[in-house]
């Protein structure tokens, strides 16, 4: 295991981060719209990736995501 984290590490709740972002970009005349993809932050620190590395994220109750670099 490289890192583990909880979603509440992102401003207490990822939805809070998205709400903050919506307010911030609105001050620039931009509005978030239904269907927009928003990445609200990371629950862990950044990890350097190199060719041959593989990462697996286990989201409790949702499943796994696997990413490999060639």
Which properties best describe this structure?
70 residues, elongated, alpha+beta, two-stranded antiparallel sheet, 17% strand
Largest sheet: 2 strands, antiparallel
Taking all Cα atoms into account, the compactness measure Rg is: 15 Å
**Share of residues in strands:** 15-25%
Strand order of the largest sheet: 1-2
Shape: elongated
Total count of helical runs of at least 4 residues:
1
Cα-to-Cα separation, first versus last residue: 21 Å
How many domains? 1
Order of secondary-structure elements: HEE
Low-confidence stretches: none
Helical/strand content category: alpha+beta
Total strand count, please?
2
As an assembly, this protein is single chain
* Percent helix range: 10-25%
Mean pLDDT over the residues: 87
Protein name: Putative hydratase
GO molecular function: 2-oxopent-4-enoate hydratase activity
Keywords: Lyase
EC number: 4.2.1.80
